[in-house]
Design a protein that fits this description.
Elements lengths: L1 E3 L7 H14 L4 E12 L6 E9 L2 E6 L4 E7 L4 E4 L1 E3 L7 H9 L2 E11 L2 H8 L6 E7 H10 L8 H5 L4 H16 L5 E4 L8 H12 L6 E4 L12 H11 L3 E3 L2 H5 L3 H13 L4 E5 L5 E4 L12 H5 L1 E3 L8 H10 L2 E4 L6 H9 L3 E3 L5 E2 L2 E2 L2 H16 L5 H8 L1 H7 L20 E4 L20 E6 L2 E5 L2 E2 L15
Parallel strand pairs: 2-5, 2-6, 7-8, 8-9, 9-10, 10-11, 11-12, 12-13, 13-17
Antiparallel strand pairs: 1-5, 2-3, 3-4, 6-20, 14-16, 15-16, 18-19, 20-21, 21-22, 22-23
The structure holds zinc ion (ZN).
Length: 483
Amino acid sequence: MISWRLGTCFQLSAVVLILLLSAAFSPSTEYDLVVLNGRVMDPETGLDAIRNVAVRNGRIVSISVEPLSGRVTIDAKGFVVAPGFIDLHQHSQTSEAYLVKARDGVTTALEMEEGVSDIDQFYQEREGRALINFGATIGHEYLRAAVAELGHPNAPAGDAAHRSLTAAEVGELHCRIEHGLSRGAVGVGVLLMDTPGATPTEILDMFRAAARFKGAPVHIHVRGLEEPQYGLETDEAITDSLITGAPVQIVHANSSYQEDAPQLLSMIEAARAHGVQVTTEAYPYTDSMVSIGEASEGWEKWPDEKFQQLEWAATGERLTRESFGKYRQRGGLMIVHHPSFTEEQLLSTVASPLTMIASDGILKDGVGHPRVAGTYSRVLGRYVREQKALTLMEGLRKMTLMPAQHLEARVPAMKQKGRVQTGADADLVIFNPETVLDQATYREPTRPPIGIEYVLVNGIIAVNRGMAKQGIFPGRAVRGAVN
Ligand SMILES: [Zn+2]
């Protein structure tokens, strides 16, 4: 419950007097907001205890067993108070998507895989207009298209996607990537599914560009089980990181590797033991999503069974060769069902201590994958509470501290996120551990979860009793240094 300290409007003069007196005599004891009696969980220090939390000027300023008072009070009795979730893989960076993300407990959503074409424009468009914190990498595919077509950055198609670049063009691409990083891109995004013409040399050069900016990671969609003709193998991505020193995140271990994920995880574990900064992430769904234009090269020759595994997201219909051809003209999103990938295999990937949780969220005009609205509540409800595949603290660590630490060398402000500690940003999620559960489905991808009661972004209430607030913009940029 939120109780406004000044709840009634009669006896106004008395209220004003009280206000003046309290400002004069006790300005330091009243906080902007307090969260009382919650089970505070901080994955870095291991704190897991009933505490009161005070917020002032967007920061956590006190965590105490003593009574605290604030102008706004949230009673968190029976609820967990955790760091807001940090999603390193959120494609749609729109007001529509931010509302949906907030209700799943996400306070920071970054477009790290595909990236964007113009870093300054990306941040300018969202500054002061975002419900949650936002950020992006510079996107290899867009700048490649600009270089290959000598034009404006677009999503690559035709020649811009398929031909290999000359050495001079790779040099130009490198310059443009470095320019994006110099404007504060969080890292470099490499979505190789969209640029099958990119050679291993070109990709190594993208790692070299990232490595010139301390800590800037490369987030890479490597060659997946169902994309044998595209991109880099896992070992090449790890080698590029080793050669250049740029950290690499291999995205969505679930959808790219499916039942082969244990091989990826053992490679990552071994490479990390030798000092390579390689990391990975997963979202808790066996089925994936792609735009119909992506990875559909040579579709006319696909066997009939392949179409039956595809579902048109807008209508839920299973595709045929004919309907696939029809929708391909129009463009849109498909759900890709992976019948051989089991829930048990997915669970072991998500529960691995190496794996961060990241949603790969896509949403446009209500059409998308349920992962955009349910990734975090699904892990907490199904994997932590129901299946006990990981402890609550382990689950929270994958959603908060791990992604924050991943970015700290590039964006030092991330040291203030992913934690419930004095001095940290007041990005908080307050949820009921007994009820939290995703509700989004393939037919209702934006249906909000239950049990996520309050979400604070930089000390401002963005979700109040499960309802996201419209028209407030407490989100701030997550951005590297701008030169
Ligand atoms: Zn991807």
